[in-house]
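Q: What changes when X2X is included in the input?
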Amino acid sequence: MTPLTRRRAIPLTLGTALALPGILKYSRAHAAEFALKYANNLPQTHPMSVRMMAAAEAIRAETGGKVDVKVFPNNQLGGDTDMLNQLRMGAIDFFTLSPLILSTLVPKVAISGIGFAWSGYDKVWPALDGELGASMRAEIQKAGLYAFPKIFDNGFRQITTSTKPIRDPNDLVGLKIRVPPGQLWTSMFKAFGSSPMTINFAEVYTALQTKIADAQENPLAVIDTAKLYEVQKYLSKTNHMWDGFWLLASGKIWPKLPADVKAVLQKHFTEAALRERDDVFKLNATLEQGLKAKGMMFNDVDTHLFQAKLQSAGFYTEWKAKFGADLWKLLEKSSGASL
Ligand code: X2X
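A: The predicted holo structure follows.
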């Protein structure tokens, strides 16, 4: 019997495939019946990559190698915008992506990234695991993608520079700061009077090293695992945005997978997300010390000054109009903030 390939195996349930009489004895040398690819833009050492590699191993073990998820971290399959296109075409089966970059395809999902909306994780997880997250997943489904229920954590974003500490909003005026490809990021830093430049994360280290950009903003775990401390001197604790990663499945594959295969994937990917959140939370408690030991200089800021600047620049008014009153109300209800 010819080994089942993923495409031909799809009509079969995993159980059927296991029970088929005379089934060839599979070894890892044989192609899996469901050979799938997961990609991300983070270093292999970031908790999201670590947890997804562990999930892939658990899935392989539980299915006896019939479902094989290969993990491609660190932009191995391209930059974010390119990988999103590959996901939509079915060249990549799973991909983790910030809602703000996904908003290029699904505009409303950027709502979770509104500046200073979240005071802490005690607000973030009930919202993203609750009504707001469900609303976002429904929007993502309309775009032909499947978002797994538990969003991964990127974290609260901090500003780093190679030139100066950012002590108050005036320090952001004219700053050449790199931002990810997402309209809300560009809008926020234009409201601060900065000169934001959109660069995929794959090129960020080089852009900072060659001084194309003097600054960037990211959570501590990304700054550390991507070794941005080698090209950035100052870290200002602005906490200006909470960001996550939706784990997305291609619409070309997800609807065709048998229910039992979906159940195995769902179980282990959910576990990976919950453990990754915990990893990032624990890292946040130790990384300030670690990054200082690697030469970074930290400073606190009065975040109210930065939020007031966004307010006076019309940032909240602009985005409330873009998202609409209902979704804005849902954000305020979910976050407890009045924006
Ligand atoms: O591109 C970034 O800065 C990163 C890694 O945080 C995201 O994926 C949004």
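Observations recorded in class: The two ends are 63 Å apart (CA to CA).
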